[in-house]
Write a structure and sequence with these properties.
Layout (H helix, E strand, L loop, with lengths): L10 H15 L5 H17 L5 H16 L3 E5 L1 H6 L1 H11 L2 E4 L6 H13 L13 E3 L9 E3 L8 E5 L3 H9 L3 E5 L6 H5 L2 E3 L3 H15 L4 H9 L3 H22 L6
Parallel strand pairs: 1-2, 1-5, 5-6, 6-7
Antiparallel strand pairs: 3-4
The structure holds adenosine-5'-triphosphate (ATP) and magnesium ion.
């Protein structure tokens, strides 16, 4: 495996890619996962590869929603398992959330590999594996319709990092509060979720863990206020505005290159 030099200007981005390619070699990540990551990377580039104040606000509301939930569940796919397995375990621990494997390109082998990887990184229990607990959500076309009756099916709050739009919409219609992590503020996922954190999942998950630890003792009314006052549409619009501004700055500072 090629070495990544720490002074390389894109070292962090290369490290993330390496985790994904290793995840693919291990059988957890599918090629489609790599291309989905590429779409995310393009938006991350525009964000400046950092957590914005807007993402912090969204993470604050999301942490409050997770702490208020009576049955929170974290839905995990191949990319999420490859990138942030330890943080998924930590977040489950601090919020009491269930962890469920839910795959678009589903195979028994991948499910088991991902579950094992999550357990190795500290997840106590992984849902979504047994056929006898599987329920199929009628509204979803893909294999992601299959959910665990003890997990996503009965959850009131679902965290769906790196989701696809169809399922986010379906889960919202089922009356669940959906929290998404998506670098693209224009995606259907970002628009359909109640709370979208426009940030890279590698930065957003630690932010949620920190937020939940910090706010754990807060009165429920205070937490409720944070969720109720969070305006997802506004947050997405401002995130897009921020990207436009940065693109303009990059254009201006690089204008001489195009003369
Ligand atoms: P949608 O189905 O919501 O309309 P889409 O079809 O454009 O979205 P998908 O291929 O379904 O996109 O899902 C990939 C999404 O995940 C993209 O929107 C991409 O921005 C986002 N994404 C990929 N990698 C990351 C990451 N590491 N952190 C955050 N978001 C990511
Ligand atoms: Mg999609």
């Amino acid at each position: 495996m090629d070495e990544i030099f720490p002074n390389h200007p894109r070292a962090e981005s290369l490290r993330i890619r390496k985790k994904l390619t290793e995840g693919m070699r291990a059988g957890m990540v599918v090629p489609e996962g790599l291309t989905a990551h590429g779409r995310g990377e393009a938006f991350d580039y525009l964000l400046g590869e950092r957590t914005t104040e807007l993402a912090r606000e969204a993470a604050e509301a999301a942490s409050a929603a997770l702490l208020l939930a009576s049955h929170p569940v974290i839905s995990v796919n191949g990319n999420t398992a490859a990138l942030v397995p330890k943080e998924v375990a930590e977040l489950a621990e601090v919020t009491g959330a269930g962890v469920e494997v839910n795959l678009f390109h589903r195979s028994r082998e991948r499910e088991l590999l991902i579950a094992e990887h999550l357990k190795k990184h500290g997840c106590r229990e992984v849902l979504g594996l047994e056929e006898e607990n599987a329920v199929r959500i009628a509204e979803i076309q893909s294999e992601r319709r299959r959910v665990d009756r003890r997990g996503i099916f009965s959850a009131d709050v679902v965290l769906v990092p790196l989701e696809d739009g169809d399922r986010t919409e379906a889960l919202q219609r089922m009356g669940k509060l959906v929290i998404a992590v998506d670098l693209n503020p224009l995606s259907r996922t970002a628009r359909a979720a109640r709370i979208t954190i426009v940030d890279n999942v590698v930065r957003a998950l630690p932010l949620l863990v920190e937020g939940c630890r910090r706010m754990r003792g807060m009165p429920r009314e205070v937490l409720r206020g944070k969720v109720e006052t969070f305006d997802n549409e506004r947050n997405l619009r401002e995130s897009l505005r921020l990207m436009c501004g940065r693109l303009r700055e990059l254009f201006d500072s690089g204008e001489h290159l195009f003369k």
